[in-house]
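Dear support,

We are seeing what looks like truncated structure output for some complexes. This example has three components. We would appreciate it if you could run it in full and send us the complete C-alpha cell output so we can diff it against ours.
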Amino acid sequence: MTRYEIRVSGFGGQGVITLSKMIIMASSIYEGLAATQTEAYSAAARGGKCWAEVVVELDKNIELIDYPKALKPYDFLIVLSEESANDVKVDFIKDEENTGFLIWDPTTIKKLKVGKKINKVLGIPVQKLAVEKFGNIVFGNSILFGIFTILSGIFSEESALETIKKFVPNSTLDKNLEAFELGKQEAMNFLNKIKEENN
Amino acid sequence: MRFMPEGKYLMMGNIAMSEGALAAGLNFFGGYPITPSTEVIEHLAARLPQVGGVCMQMEDELASINAVIGASLVGAKAMTATSGPGIALMTETISMAANLEIPFVFCDVQRNGPGTGYVTEPHHNDIGLMRFAGNGEFQVITLAPMSCQELYDLTIVAFNFAETYRCPVFIMSDAYLGHLHEVVKIPSKEKVEKMVIKREIPEDIIGKFSYKDESTGKYIIPKPPIMGTDYCPPMFLSQPHSLEGMPTPKPQIFTEMMIKKITSNIDKIALTDTYKLDDAEIIIIAYGLPVRASYRAVDLARKEGIKVGILRLITIWPFPDEKVKETVKDAKVVIVPELNYTGVIAEQVERVTNLNTPVIRIPNVCEIHHPHDILKVIKEVDK
Amino acid sequence: MSGIGPMYPNEKPENPYVLVSYAGHLLGNYSSRLCAGCGYGIIGHIFTRLFEDEKLDPKLYPLVLGIGCYSQMLLTVHYATQKVLSLHGRAPALATGMKMANPQMKPIIFTGDGDCLGIGGNHFIHTCRRNLDCIILIFNNSIYAMTGGQGAPTTLFGAKSTTTPYKMFENRSDGVKLALAAGATYVARTTVAHPRTFMKYFRKALKHKGTSVIELITPCVTYFGRKNLNNLGAEYLGLKGEKMDTAGKMIDWIKRNSIRVNQAKFMNEEELFNKYIIGEFRYAPDQPEYSDEYAKIQKIARGGI
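Here is the complete output from our reference environment:
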C-alpha cells in the first residue's frame, strides 16, 4: 500500500477543483489506479480558501481506498493564494526522496514564509505565464498539470494528454497542449536543478 | 438516453446515486435543495426530462415528498433526496406512504445536526430517524453504501426492494460520501435491465387488485396498484386498511401485516458481507464509510497475528438479528465503529447479544475513521 | 368508519343520483356521517350529479381529499371515482405529483379552509403559481369543524369558536384574493345556497386548462351556527339577534352575508367588512399550463428544439 496524497488550494475560480479532477481522472480512469477526490463545498469553494484533495493508491492490486481524505504530510502541495499559503507549515510536506513537492505561485503570493525550510519548492508564476503566453488565466491549469505529471510521475504522459483532451474544448486544445509542454519543461528544469544541487 | 454507455466514469457520489436511480427506471423526482444533497436535484433536473421523466423543485420538503407519493400512486417510479432537516419535515408523509404501502426511494445524504449543524460534515445521526420516521408502527428498509460504486449499485437494489415490498426504502448516504469523487463502473444496458423490476400491471390479475391471495385468503404483497387504471383499490385512505383495501375495524391485524411483510422476508432483505470472519475472535460490525477503514485495520491487525474479522451490514434496517447473533456468538469482543456518538447500531448489537458480549464503540462525529483509530482499539482489546 | 350503515333502511331513494354515490352504490341507500344542516351533503350531491351527467372518466379525474369534515364526503361522491385521502393540507402537493406523472389526469382536490389556507397554505400558493391543471375546491365553513369548532384562518371577525371564546380578533384569510395573487387562472367563489351557480362554475372549471379555484361558503350549524347566537361579536356577523341553530337559518344568513361581485364594486370597505363577495374573479383560459410547459422542456432536453 502506497498512498500518494495531493492537495491543491487557492482562490475559488482559479481552477483548483478542475486541476484536482484532472489529476484523479488521469490516475483512475486512464492509469487504472484507485483514487478519491474531495473538494471544498458551498461557500468555501468560492472564497479565498478553496481546496481540493486527491488520494491515489499506487498499488494496482488495491481497489478501494481505505481512508479517502488526504493526510499530512502531503506528497504534493500546490498553493495558489496568499491565504492558503499562510497556512502552510513545514511538516505539511513529506521530506523524502522523489516525493514531497510544494508548488507556489508568485503572481498571487508575495512571499512563502516556509519556502526555505522545505527541500523541493518550486515557485512559478503560473497565472502570469498563462496570461502572457496564452492570453487567458485558465491555461494555468494545463501548465500546473504538466508540472504535476513530470514531478509526481504517478501517471504516464499519455494518460495526461488523454485527460487534457477530455477536459478542454476542441477550440483551445492546441494552446492547452502548448501550456502542458511548458509545464513539463519547467518541471524538468526544476528536476535538473535539484540533481545539480544534490551533486 | 436513460442508460449511460458501459464503461468507467469519474463520478461524485450524489451523481452516481442519481444515475443508479435513472438506471432503475426513475420517472419522477420531487425535491427541495438542501446541502449536501443538492447535486442530486441539479443532476436530475437536467437528466430526467431527457428520458421523459419529471424532476420538480417543489416549494418545500413536505410538498416534495407528497408529490413523490402522488407520482408513485399513478405508476411512476419516484424518489426524493434530502438531508437531516428535510427528513425530519417529511416524517409524517413517510408514515403515510408506509401505511398506504406506496413504494418510493428516499436518499438521505446525512449531515451534522442537531439544528442546522455543520452542513458539509458527515454524521450518521439520522439512522434512528430512518428506522422510526413518522407516527405509527411500520418497518422500512435502509441500505448503507460505502463507495460511489455502491451508491450506484445499491440504488438499483433499493428500487427493486421498494417495488417488491411496497414500502419506503432509504439509501443512507452522507455529506462525505455524497461529495466524494470516485470511479464508477457502469454495467451494460442489458445487464442493468435484467436487474431492474419494472412497474407494470401484472398480466394475470388485471382488474382485480387485492391485498389477499384468492386461494388462501391470506395477505400477500401484490404488485403496486396504479391509479388511473383498473388495477387499483377502491380508495387509498391514510388509515389502516383491510385485505379488501377498505378501512379496517381491526388495526392490529393491519399493523402486524405491515411489520411482518418485511420481517418475514428478512433473509432476502438483510444483505451482509463478511471479511476474514472464519476464525475471528474480535469482530468488527460496521456499515457505511467506516467499513473502508475497517478493512485496512483488519489487514494490519492480521499481520500482527490478531484474529479479527468484519461483519459488514449493507442493510441496516431491518436489523439482521439472526445473522448478527450467529456471527458474534463465539466472539470475545465486538467493535462497532460508527460515525455517530450514541452508537445506534451498537445498541442493536447489544440487544441481540443480550449484553453477553462486550460491545466497544468507536464514536466519531464529523470525522471519518482512520484505519489506525480502529487498529488501536483492536490492539487494546487484544491485550 | 366501522359504523357505516343505511340511515333509513326501507326508504327508497328519491333522487336518481343517490344510487351512484359511493354509499348508495355499496349499500343501496343514502348514507353519510355529516351533521344535520351540513352543507357538504349538497356539495357531494352536486359533485356526484356532475360526474354522472358529464360522464367524466374516473381514470382521468382522480379525487384527492384533504383532512376535514369533508373527508366524510367519500361516501357521498360518485362510486366510480378513484379516491386518495391525503394528509392534512398536502392534497395540492399530492395532486401535483399525480398530474405530473400522468399529465392526462386532471385531479379534483377537495380541501377546506383550515386545510388549504391554514396548514397547506404554501402548497396552495405554489400550485396556483404553477398554474397546474387541476380543480381546487375550498370548502369554507369558517371553522375547524372536525376537531370540534376551533377558530380557523377564515373565521369571521367577532365570531366565537372554542379557541376564540371571547371573539375572533385576527384578520381573516381570503382564499380568493390569495389565489388571484398566486396566479390561479380561474377563480370563483360561491355558496351552497347557490347550487346552480356552483354547477355552472364547476362545469367551467372542468373545461378550463389550468388551476381552477372555487371557494364554496358552506354552513356549519353544529359548531359555527350554535356558537354564534348572541355573543360578543354578533354585531359584526349581521345576526341581528336571531339564532343560527338550524340549517335554514344558516343558509339564510349565508345568503344575506354574501354580495355579488358586481354589487361589491359600488360598495366601500366598511360595507364589505365580514361579507363574502361571490362571483367569478378571474378567467384566463390561455395562460401557459405547467404540465404543457414541462412537456416543452422535455422536448428541449431531448434536443427537439
